[in-house]
Amino acid sequence: MITLSSADINIWIASLLWPLARILGLITAAPVLGNRSVPTTVKVSLGVLLALVIAPTVPKLPATDPMSYAGLLILVQEMLIGVAMGFTMRIVFSSIEMAGEISSLTMGLGFASFFDPNTQGRSSAISQFLALVATMAFISINAHLVLLSALAESFQTLPVSGIPINGGGFKRVADWGARIFSAGLQLSLPIVAALLITNVALGVLTRAAPQLNLFGIGFPITLGIGFIVVATTLPYLGTPLENLFLQGVEKVREFPRIWVAREPQPASRTAPPAAPALNQTPPAVAQ
User: Could you list the residue ranges that cross the membrane (predicted)?
Assistant: First the structure.
């Protein structure tokens, strides 16, 4: 007869619940996998399936009741780790969307904005177009599978533990957020440069012929040149996007190595006096 104790049941629950928390955190924050158009049932089902596959390979778990206060803290910590890893890759897509925003404003399409269901805010036409291109490139190079592979490796690099993680990893995530502005400007630089030359030429033309209506001819010219530059640079976006995705995956793999360094224990304030050396001459006694 098979008998099960409460300790065995707690181990089974913890071995599935704690990895599932990290997996669902990444799926919620990661691009493509955490898209709002994907039903919640599909996301949860994918998370449970990945947890069932990854759980047998997870190192030894802490002997803590998952329903206790310490177990809930571990659950929250695993959720934060997964969200931070997914948010790291989401920053790459934010930089691509920012490139579209800069391009739209430079072309004069600032008024052509739509409601973005992912960010629950306004998004320009060029930004949504580049986001769709980035999504197709993300799937075509199997970057979503590489991201899931990095998630599985994180359980070996940063095992589930009751020891609190340090804040160095979250600071690196914040520092990685600066990539939004640098990568967004680099991707939009061809359009910005072409339209800057166009605006300078229009300014010279208006100065030479003041009777020309700048507002009548300027907008169609900048808009047409902007679309031409977008169509010209589109075939060459594959390599920059692939490099951005690879950098994002490397950051996802790097952060668990930073978090694995736990907080150092504070040193004692009262250190014992150093022992004198064997060949040290004792100090002379004051007369």
Answer: 12-33, 70-93, 129-152, 180-202, 214-237
- End-to-end CA distance of the chain, in Å? 88
Mean pLDDT of the region 110-136: 74
Quote the crossing angle between the two packed helices 238-259 and 179-208, to the nearest 10°: 150
Other C-beta atoms within 10 Å of 204: how many? 10
pLDDT tens-digit map of 32-41: 888 888 888 9
pTM: 0.76
Q: Residue 203 CB: number of other CB atoms within 10 A?
A: 12
